[in-house]
Amino acid sequence: MNKDNKDEMLPLVDENGVIIGAATRGECHNGSKILHPVVHLHVFNSNGELYLQKRPEWKDIQPGKWDTSVGGHIDLGENVEMALKREVNEELGITEFTPQIIESYVFESKVEKELVYVHKTVYDGEVKPSDELNGGKFWTLDEIRESIGKDILTPNFEQEFIRLKF
User: Fold this and answer.
1) What's the structural domain count of the chain?
2) Which of 38, 42, 131, 142 places its Cα 20 to 30 Å from the Cα of 161?
3) Can you tell me the distance from the alpha carbon of 164 to that of 166, in angstroms, rounded to the nearest whole number?
4) Are 153 and 67 spatial neighbours (Cβ–Cβ below 8 Å)?
5) For the segment 56-68, what is each residue's pLDDT rounded down to a tens digit?
């Protein structure tokens, strides 16, 4: 069984994205709420459907729920663009895409606090979810709206979806 690497080192940032230190993934996800950066990419097809990934049961945060197309930590030594390209390739096997930055904001849950760099793209090529995921599929925006509040989607995805008014 796969599992998250609790010893993975992540940068700590202030709300402007300036690196102020480092901590392990375990420290960032243990309720300490130390701010660490992540990237999100919303992958739309030309029909306006949004790809959602299914989180595997072994994930340390929100296992088994549907989530943002791509989401991952920015590693020490990476910038936003590098992390986005790495995560999109790792999770969906996509190497050629044109990201559009939407915004950045601070997300806080009971166990973590993230500076989220949100992007979107339109992509009609093949999507090959990796073993980091439990698959994925394109959803209509109405299907997503109907699923909000039903414990199907991750709370952070729901909040971001509503925030962005897709």
Assistant:
1) 1
2) 131
3) 6
4) yes
5) 998 878 899 999 9
